[in-house]
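Possible regression after last week's pipeline update?

I re-ran a chain I had predicted before the update to compare outputs. Posting the input and the new output here so someone can diff against the archived version. Not blocking, just want to make sure nothing changed silently.
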Amino acid sequence: MDNNSRIDALDRKILSIISKDARTPFLEVARECGVSGAAIHQRVQKLVNMGVIIGSEFIVSPQSMGYKTCAFVGINLKKACLYQDIAEELAKIPEIIECHYVTGNYSLFIKVMAHDNEHLRKILSDKLQRLDIVERTETIISLEESFRRQFPIDLAEQ
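New output (post-update):
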């Protein structure tokens, strides 16, 4: 049985509220849901144990820390089957904030945050392209992030 069949309307309402702001106090969630704070705590713990909630975090704005350039890089590997090995190497480069093993024209697709274009160039040439398994890369610079959101809870109902 999948998690979706074990999640009821109250769970969905809780998820909808806390996914918009993880700092919402459980008592406030309880008031909105019409149940006790203890019930919310138990439900959230159940959702964590089920793997539906996989964490909570404060999101630091890279721009506020001086990282103004966001880029996506498609990576072609000499041997695509070694993607796990390179993923471990890429994880050592702190400016790489996402890494996906993908289908299509690339083996991996990563998201990189850099101070500026010069810093991005150094990451690409001095760190990424020096890895033996990398055959070639293609970089796309993001001009603006139009939006970012959590997975919408109402989609899970469909």
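Follow-up from reviewer: compared with the archived run. Strands lie at 69-77, 96-101, 108-114, 134-142. Marking as no regression found.
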